[in-house]
Amino acid sequence: MLKVVGVQTYYGKIHALRGVDLQVNEGEIVSLIGANGAGKSTLLMTICGNPRAAGGSIHFLGQDISRLTTDRIVRQGIAQSPEGRRIFPRMTVLENLMMGALTSEPSYFDNDLERVTDLFPILKERASQKGGTLSGGEQQMLAIGRALMGRPKMLLLDEPSLGLAPLVVKQIFQVIEQINKEDGVTILLVEQNAFHALRLASRGYVMVNGRITLSGGGEELLNNPEVRSAYLEGGAKV
Questions:
Q1: Is 82 helix (H, G, I), strand (E, B) or coil?
Q2: Cis peptide before 51, with omega less than 30 degrees from 0?
Q3: What is the distance between the alpha carbons of residues 108 and 105, in angstroms, rounded to a whole number?
Q4: Of 6, 106, 136, 150, which is least surrounded by CB within 10 A?
Q5: What is the four-CA torsion angle of 116, 117, 118, 121, rounded to 10 degrees?
Q6: CA neighbor of 71 nearest in space, from 93, 103, 100
Q7: Rounded to two decimals, what is the model's pTM?
Q8: Which element (helix H / strand E) includes 159?
């Protein structure tokens, strides 16, 4: 479904991605783990066209999307729930969800809204509340819900557990699995919580300094001594 080949990305003179190769097959949950600053979020943003890849190629459903604008990439069926949530704080919960539905057929709105509020019932209760007044966990649910309102074929999730209480993290990961299994949404998950990310994933990648250094099945990486040392036991980097 998604094929990233030799992707190079720069921020000015900073070489953020250094020849990244990654593949996500239809129906998979693929996790990308790595330390802060490894380039994980940059890869998700590059897939979405901002920043633009300076080299290499990105194919989605067989089409090269490397040169497309972000709005055209979204219309191809890719949605992102970004790091830090980035909801619209002065808009209500409902208005935020409406923004997510802008690329979808209006006739789908009611059904999609019902599905999102089934996944996250608190969003129905908070429908008229300003997004900025929600708790961190509720804002994360809103960010994921907003992305789902666009009916994506692939969902890019950037640090969905960041700063959340353990019980909320558990709920978020349960919903991620539900979205994948029940709705058939393919997921590329960037996550510092390596245990949760790899346990959920069919496959995973490890990124260090803008490069993919390891890849394999989720269970395989969980049991890899280098991964355990670096990301599960607080040891040195891979």
A1: coil
A2: yes
A3: 6
A4: 106
A5: 140
A6: 103
A7: 0.91
A8: none
Distance in angstroms between the alpha carbons of the first and the last residue of the chain: 28
**pLDDT (tens digit, 9 = 90+) per residue, 167-223?**
999 999 999 999 999 999 999 999 988 998 999 999 999 999 999 999 999 999 999
CB 192 within 8 A of CB 215: no
Distance between CA 93 and CA 132 in Å, rounded? 9
Whether the Cβ atoms of residue 41 and residue 17 lie closer than 8 Å to each other? no
Q: Where are the alpha helices (DSSP H) in 92-165?
A: 93-100, 109-119, 121-125, 136-148
Q: Fold for domain 2-77+153-232?
A: Rossmann fold (3.40.50)
**204, β-bridge pairs:** 31, 216
Which residues of the chain form CATH 3.40.50.300?
2-77+153-232
Handedness of CA 60, 62, 65, 71 (dihedral sign): negative
Distance CA 126, CA 56 (A): 43
d(CA 91, CA 81): 17
Question: For the segment 64-83, what is each residue's pLDDT rounded down to a tens digit?
Answer: 999 999 999 999 999 999 88
> Long-range contacts of range 106-112, CB-CB < 8 Å, 24 or more positions apart?
108/151, 109/149, 112/148, 112/149, 112/151
- 238, containing H or E segment: none
Q: What is the DSSP string of 186-200?
A: EEEEE-S-HHHHHHH
Concatenated DSSP letters of 171-228: HHHHHHHHHHHHH--EEEEE-S-HHHHHHH-SEEEEEETTEEEEEEEHHHHHT-HHHI
